[in-house]
Specification:
- This protein has about 70 residues and is mainly alpha-helical.
- Helices cover about 75% and strands about 0% of the residues.
- The protein has four helices and no strands.
- Helix 1 crosses helix 4, helix 2 packs across helix 4 and helix 3 packs across helix 4.
- It is globular and about 35 Å long.
- The termini are far apart.
Length: about 70
């Protein structure tokens, strides 16, 4: 796995993310897929997948801070 701390946050607050964010985060962190692979299987561009995962990380960090 790429980031154990983030995965712990996901386990705790993941249900608060959108369905698309959950799908992309799980693909990237749990199944070790690349942004390009996720873009090809879920539609969109590599950049849009990267942005969605980055936004999910920020969102989960904000939930933890509260």
């Amino acid at each position: 796995m790429k980031d154990y701390e983030f995965v712990d946050l996901y386990d705790t607050y993941g249900a608060l993310l959108t369905e698309r964010q959950r799908t992309l985060v799980e693909g990237y962190y749990l199944y070790d897929l690349s942004f390009q692979e996720l873009a090809e299987t879920n539609g969109g561009s590599r950049q849009s997948v990267y942005d969605a995962v980055k936004k999910a990380r920020k969102t989960l960090s904000e939930y933890e801070a509260k």
